[in-house]
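Moderator note: this is an archived Q&A kept for reference. The question asked for a predicted structure of one protein chain; the sequence and the answer are reproduced below.
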Amino acid sequence: MRILHVGDRLGGRGGAHWHLRAVVEQLLALGHHVELVVGAVEPGVEPPCRTHLVAGLEARERRPAPLDGIAGAARPDVIHLHTVVNPAVLDWAAGRPAVLTVQDHRYFCPGRGKWTAGGHVCAEPMAPGTCAACFDDATYFEDVYALTAERLAAAGRLPLVVLSHYMKAELAAAGVPAARIAVVPPFVHGLDAEAAPSGPPCVLFAGRLAAGKGVRDATAAWRASSVELPLVFAGTGPLRAEIEAAGFEVLGWVPHARLAAVFRRARALLLPSRWQEPFGIVGLEALAMGTPVAAWRSGGVPEWHPGGATLSEWGDVPGLARALRAAVEGPRATAAPGFEADALMRRLTAVYAGATGLPLEDRQHQP
């Protein structure tokens, strides 16, 4: 099968961009012809296949992106869009055999990821009267809401892939027919199973250092837990200076090649996301490396988390503290079942076949 992947950029940071790379490399290993089109390649990132640069793919608003020439030369059986929110590109893809992976809330939530300004989980579908309460500036709200609605309308014309049943339910609530949405979770990719610990035992927070990721909740739960291991942060973001000023060790952004060693060091991973996690790939990776995960029920997290004493209710800091103590005092974790790469790639290529309108076996044997 010939597949043209389209993304805003090829990067080494963030679960969404690492998932794009994982899918591309897995398809190449399976013998498919794969090319990539992105708006930019981050410094130090080596493209895994033939890669084209096209301005406009990284745009968050409607902006032209000249893709016809590349698509004509590549002759793809299917186009797979990732991390692209430019409505002009979504409209372009809707006229071709194409699939869109929705990895975050930007298609159905103009705010903070189904987390309200009042500090509560948003259980309401997108609507002007509901969403306006999360904004202080009415003009800005109107602009963002209109752009989100435009993305949603464009996405509704494409077959969609989402990473969790939570995301499928949210898109269906926003008006996308459920039959057009396939759930294909991510898989663990690129971690060294034989990695040695990179330092002494600790409790780990891994991710963007921002309020939506629950950074302050992590520190509060760690203090309340009385766990004697230090809390270490792997990541960067707007709260980094605050965390460092409080005396915590901050590793900065850890390249994926070194992440396994950090997981090996950790006795537990803290995952107290305030925004509703589309999936939470860092938790799946931690489990694969034997690191228990103390988490809140946030978005798609319960779909891979083993549950029990290490999973607490969203927003419950004392409960998270108890979950952390249970994780530290309990046994090492085991990999979550049902997220094997081979099975998930078969599911994805079946989605591709459906988008082309031809049986999968016919596409597999085309040059």
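Archived answer notes: The mean pLDDT is 94.
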